[in-house]
Amino acid sequence: MKIFHKTSCITCKKTISEFQRMKADIEKRDFFKDPFTETELQKICKMTGKKPSELLRKRDKMYKDLDLENSKKTENQIVKLMVKYPGLILRPIIITKNKAFVGKIDMKKLN
Prior knowledge:
There is one protein chain. The protein is of the alpha+beta class. It has four helices and four strands. It starts with a strand and ends in a 9-residue tail after the last strand.
């Protein structure tokens, strides 16, 4: 199982400690220190079954600065922005087998 996170994110910390408590075998990657490529992000989006625009953190400062609420960006343009500004990506991202879960996660869904 892989967890993509931000070290200082409280939701990420809670999720990681929950997995550690369950003695799950996890591989962690801080995607602020080791950024995603466009290809990785597109693959993650496919695994969630959602469009990149559905994985945007609406509370992020860049979301407001770029006026993404009202912009007419394509999904590919959004992926490029997410690579450039990782704060736009909902977190944590958990990869299990061939599925991806993003944001606050109901642990029961992962079993």
